[in-house]
């Protein structure tokens, strides 16, 4: 028996230490709007522009995305914790939506992405829905963060150097001290 099979809660807690943004994955199917809170979202490629969302195979949204063939991702702002809770199954009242390319999105989110499903890869108990970006919009703002089972907000680090145009943003190498 694997360690993971006997200790899934500890594994989940360990992975929860990786801070993520909070998104709402949404779509429209049969004239109904469907949405779910998700933190399994990332960019895949710039050319072509591809993104991926990870959805549990047993989630209602799983089969809906397979049928709809399109989805939206709304990256929530720090003021939208109630929206996240709403789409996580704890209704918080009315949520305002907007639409782009026929896909519903959360009003007030700092980023909207609309994608067409180009591939769906089963991966354990989830499916990775790869989407080609059809439309996107971004507004300035602070994101809502999720870390160790709790919503968080960013604060600026006093040690954060000013980012310059010369910064390459890729691999950095350090020399480790020799253990003598």
Which descriptors apply to this entry?
alpha+beta, single chain, Pnp Oxidase, Chain A, three-stranded antiparallel beta sheet, 4 helices, 12 strands, 180 residues
Structure write-up:
There is one protein chain. With 180 residues, this protein is α+β, with helices and mostly antiparallel strands. It has one domain: Roll (Pnp Oxidase, Chain A). 16% of the residues lie in helices and 43% in strands. The strands form 3 sheets. It has a 7-stranded antiparallel β-sheet, with helices on both faces. A hairpin with a 2-residue loop joins strand 2 and strand 3. The longest helix is centred in the middle third of the chain and has 9 residues. The protein is globular and about 45 Å long. The N and C termini lie far apart (41 Å).
Lateral arrangement of strands in the main beta sheet: 3-2-6-9-10-5-4
- What is the 3D shape? globular
Uncertain runs: none
CATH class: Mainly Beta
Count helical runs: 4
What's this, in brief?
The mean pLDDT is 88.
How is the secondary structure organized here?
Blueprint (H helix, E strand, L loop, with lengths): L2 H4 L1 H8 L4 E2 L1 E7 L2 E7 L2 E6 L2 E8 L3 H9 L1 E6 L5 H7 L9 E4 L2 E4 L4 E13 L2 E13 L5 E4 L2 E4 L27
Antiparallel strand pairs: 1-11, 2-3, 2-6, 4-5, 5-10, 6-9, 7-8, 9-10, 11-12
